[in-house]
Q: What sequence folds into this?
């Protein structure tokens, strides 16, 4: 017995683009941008937009502080000398 289409599903056209298979996405399912993430869940393919970049400050803010002490990198250097400009 053939599977019925899930509610809201539409047929889409598959075609070849060089050596890759491609799908024509109907306008009502259009995704932003020009890239997608694709994954497989059993016999289903899932297309989703890539995660938005949150920026460097947001990334750094999400990190936990380091618990280990920072190494003393100056320990083996000779002492500083005064410089007259």
A:
């Amino acid at each position: 017995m053939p599977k019925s289409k899930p509610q809201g599903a539409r047929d889409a056209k598959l075609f070849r683009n060089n050596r890759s298979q491609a799908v024509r996405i109907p306008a009502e399912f259009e995704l932003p941008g020009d890239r997608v993430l694709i994954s497989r869940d059993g016999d289903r393919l899932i297309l989703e937009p890539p995660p938005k970049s949150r920026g460097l400050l947001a990334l750094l803010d999400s990190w936990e502080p380091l618990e280990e002490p920072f190494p003393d990198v100056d320990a083996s250097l000779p002492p500083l000398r005064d410089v007259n400009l």
In short: The two ends are 89 Å apart (CA to CA). Residues 11-49 form one domain. The first helix runs from residue 56 to 62.
